[in-house]
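Troubleshooting: if your tokenizer reports a length mismatch, compare your output against this known-good record of 134 residues.
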Amino acid sequence: MDTEKTEGWFDPEATTFGDRVAGAREQAGMTQSQLAKRLGVKLKTLKGWEEDLSEPRANKLSMMAGLLNVSLLWLLSGEGDGPDVPGEEGELSRDVMDMLTEIRDVKTQLAQAADRLGLLEKNLRMTLKDEAGE
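Known-good structure output:
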């Protein structure tokens, strides 16, 4: 696709956070209900984000970026790796879309597990330090 067609695609100066969330969700082939369920939030909460009435916490923002296959920076500012430009990939079969969605889900679960592991390691180090009398 030529540069002229892709330059305005989710222009950082013309889109809001909510616009980017909604656009990336649609590009990922998800409904608001599906994304809300995968994020573990109420539909009303996701709608608030897409309508720029509220913003997610950092952990939900990170999960959302993983599920939508976009960078965290892109969600926040419109710069960085965003969704593919429409028509760039061509039409994908339902099976392929389902597999891509499952891959995103696994990536999100892995990121959450890594976060939990990091917190557990931090708590263990603090406990060991306290027990050593430091």
